[in-house]
Write a structure and sequence with these properties.
The chain has 416 residues and is mainly α. Helix 10 (220-262) runs antiparallel to helix 11, helix 10 packs across helix 15 and helix 11 (267-280) runs antiparallel to helix 12. Helix content is 75%, strand content 0%. It is a multi-pass membrane protein. Residues 1-30 are annotated as: Disordered.
Length: 416
């Protein structure tokens, strides 16, 4: 007789099939708490995930806030590498390293300040000369327009139109509002210059102490590698500065000859200006270097400014595609294509600073990695030199066609 429930109805409950767990998965009792409650590990996992996200956001915010400081430190480090040979020579002769570093930076400061002062006085004199001679330039321009286009323009009408124009009024208002922005940018630039100078001084003066502190946390084998990388960085940075100095000399001499032939005043100073600014200020250095000679040449003859512009453009192309790759490959010992690509990559990553330090950084990395790459002897194969292989490859198509025709001829035999 079938079993019945308490109310007398037959029971329809059957034995439930046994739960099977796929291989490699934990039992359901371990994944789900008894009674359908939340597992104990889930709140901790959620808190850990939120903590990681918060730490990532905080680190990203801090990195963006400190980007300018990190770039300044990077510039200071490469500047310290550049003056390292001079400081080391003076220290080897018995001068204390701090005093030697101070003397090197003091000499650089005197040279830069003297050059800037000379250029400032020259530029101020030329601007005053242009302002005094502006009415004459305007009269000559108006006469040329009247003769060419048969007009009747007058200088008085043009001056009154400019003084009462809305464009001049808006320009004066915008210039007055932008004085504070320019002042803030100048103060910010001076602060960055001071920051770079202080860090570079400390890096150069405390170079041995910095290397000792870095090596103290590394095993002896790693210490030798770090010291070798430091030595390579000093050599490559010095080679890069040597190549830049040589290109500055060539550029300065070329522009000096042009300006001297045309009779432009201050030709020697302008040649030095073009050479230094175009080589040591990346990205916009060429435009800044060419603007001043054009401005001064314009005071002599407006057509001279056009000739200077054409010469600057042509010489820049010659320097970019012929002179710079050759000198860089010899002094820094990297391929011209690698040097060109490193400048583009550095500009994309760090802007003007990246363009300036890209070549010595890539040269240092290439030289350091080259010591640990295993190399093998190259086989004497013509294909290595770009020649085709001389191995026999069978008869050509003309020979095969001739043999086939001879085989089909009456009395011919195949393979003749």
């Amino acid at each position: 007789m079938a079993p019945t429930a308490e109310d007398g109805e037959p029971s329809v409950r059957q034995a439930a099939p046994a739960a099977t767990t796929p291989p490699g998965r934990p039992p359901l009792a371990d994944a789900v708490a008894p009674g359908g409650r939340m597992p104990r590990w889930l709140p901790r996992a959620m808190v850990l995930a939120l903590a990681l996200i918060a730490a990532f956001q905080l680190g990203s915010w801090a990195f963006h806030q400190l980007t300018s400081l990190l770039i300044n430190i990077l510039i200071a480090f490469f500047l310290a590498l550049a003056v390292e040979p001079a400081v080391s020579r003076m220290a080897a002769r018995g001068i204390r390293r701090g005093l030697a570093t101070f003397l090197v930076f003091f000499g650089l400061t005197i040279v830069i300040a003297g050059f800037v002062t000379l250029l400032g006085s020259m530029l101020a004199g030329q601007i005053i000369k242009m302002i005094e001679g502006f009415p004459e330039y305007l009269d000559s321009l108006i006469n040329w327009i009247n003769q060419t286009f048969h007009t009747e323009l007058k200088r008085v009408d043009i001056q009154e139109g400019l003084l009462h124009s809305d464009w001049l009024r808006k320009y004066v208002q915008n210039s007055a509002a932008g004085v504070l922005d320019v002042s803030a940018q100048v103060l910010g630039g001076l602060f960055q210059l001071l920051t770079v100078g202080l860090f570079s001084f400390y890096f150069a003066a405390d170079g041995p102490r910095l290397r000792r502190a870095l090596c103290s946390v590394l095993p002896p084998a790693r210490q030798a590698e770090v010291l070798r990388a430091w030595e390579i960085a000093v050599a490559k940075t010095g080679g890069y500065l040597y190549s830049r100095g040589l290109m500055a000399l060539i550029s300065g001499v070329a522009h000096y000859i042009l300006l001297e032939v045309m009779g432009v005043p201050y030709a020697p100073v302008l040649g030095v200006w073009v050479g230094l600014v175009s080589q040591f200020i990346p990205t916009i250095g060429t435009y800044l270097a060419g603007a001043l000679p054009m401005l001064i040449a314009f005071t002599v003859d407006p057509w001279y400014a056009v000739w200077v512009l054409g010469f600057v453009v042509i010489y820049q192309q010659f320097e970019n595609y012929m002179l710079q790759p050759k000198l860089t490959s010899k002094t820094v010992d990297i391929h011209p294509a690698v040097a060109f690509g490193s400048v583009i990559a550095g500009t994309a990553l760090l802007g003007a600073v990246g363009a300036l330090i890209a070549i010595p950084a890539v040269a240092t990395l290439q030289a350091f990695l080259g010591a640990y790459v295993k190399r093998y002897a190259v086989t004497d194969d013509p294909r290595v030199h770009g020649h085709r292989s001389r191995t026999p490859s069978g008869p050509g198509p003309l020979t095969r066609a001739r043999r086939l025709w001879a085989a089909r001829r009456p009395g011919g035999r195949e393979g003749a």
